[in-house]
Amino acid sequence: MTERILVVDDDRQMTGFLDRFLTKQGFDVHCVGSATRMGLAMEHGEYDLVLLDVGLPDIDGFEVTRELRRSSRLPIILLTAREDVFDKIIGLELGADDYVSKPFEPRELLARVRSVLRRSKTMGTSHEALPEVRVLRFMGFVLDLPKRQLSGPDEREVALTGMEFNLLKVLAENAGDVVSRDKIMQTIYGHAITVTDRAIDAHIARLRKKILCPASGNTPIRTVHGAGYSLAAQVCAE
After folding, report:
1. What is the gyration radius of the CA atoms in the chain, in angstroms?
2. CATH 1.10.10.10 occupies which residues in the chain?
3. pTM here?
4. Which residues contact 225 (CB under 8 A, 6 or more apart)?
5. Please, which contacts does 129-134 make with residues 24 or more away whose CB atoms are closer than 8 Å?
């Protein structure tokens, strides 16, 4: 089946190029120029991936990503003329799968599109093979995957950044096992940007302060020196 790509960009020259280029690569491409039209397109059709410009005329692409991630796991690649690495990090923390700076090399964009689609298919296959997991419970904490929310033992919401949520999800899904930094980089960041070990350590340090055992006050997130991290807790998937 032909994979469908929704291009959201108000630059008609850009959408015209992407339409022609991606169609030649065998994709079914639909282009719109605003977040509003994106919403209408998604109401009337299904897509395998969205190429989303950050600087839309009606709603910021980062906000669109945030809203879409509340209800969908549809792959998103952000397009932007911004070069600041912090913008890339923000986009990825909000749930984007990749980030491409304009102007870009068409073959690089194509490689990223195919890479994101492959990852999406792998995740889709695993979800089809097993009952869909919606909630992960451990030590009184409740990690709600569709809502991307964490509740503590007191049933109050624990504020997490997008990156902290993704980290905790990876650790909880592999509870008891050591998750290497390489696996964290690949699972969360993909090939979007180069991330240092120190950056991951900083995210882990902040997450540890929020995940504390009610009885001991200690965190179950352990560092396995030279190997990675582990969530030392029994996790119940529902």
Report:
1. 19
2. 135-237
3. 0.57
4. none
5. 133/237, 133/238, 134/238
Looking at the chain, which residues constitute the CATH 3.40.50.2300 domain(s)? Answer: 4-129
Residue 152, pLDDT score:
92
Q: Which CATH architecture has domain 135-237?
A: Orthogonal Bundle (1.10)
In this predicted model, what pLDDT tens digit does every residue of 152-199 receive, in sequence order?
999 899 998 888 888 899 899 888 888 888 778 777 665 545 556 777
Percent of the chain with pLDDT over 90: 42
* Two tokens, residue 16: 């015209």
Contact 71, 63 (CB under 8 A): no
Q: Whose CA is closest to 92, among 173, 8, 195?
A: 195
What pLDDT, in 10s, does the model give residues 190-231? Answer: 554 555 677 788 889 999 999 998 888 899 999 988 888 999
Q: Which residues contact 219 (CB under 8 A, 6 or more apart)?
A: 208, 209, 211, 212, 213
Domain 4-129, classified CATH 3.40.630.30, yes or no = no
> How many Cα atoms sit within 13 Å of 109 on the Cβ side?
24
Q: Are the CB atoms for 140 and 190 separated by under 8 Å?
A: no
Contacts of residue 91, defined as CB under 8 A and 6 or more positions apart, other chains included, come to 54, 61, 62, 65, 78, 80, 99
Task: Give pairs for 131-136: CB < 8 Å, separation 24+.
Answer: 133/237, 133/238, 134/238, 135/237, 135/238, 136/169, 136/172, 136/173, 136/235, 136/236, 136/237, 136/238
| Partners of 228 in the β-ladder | 224
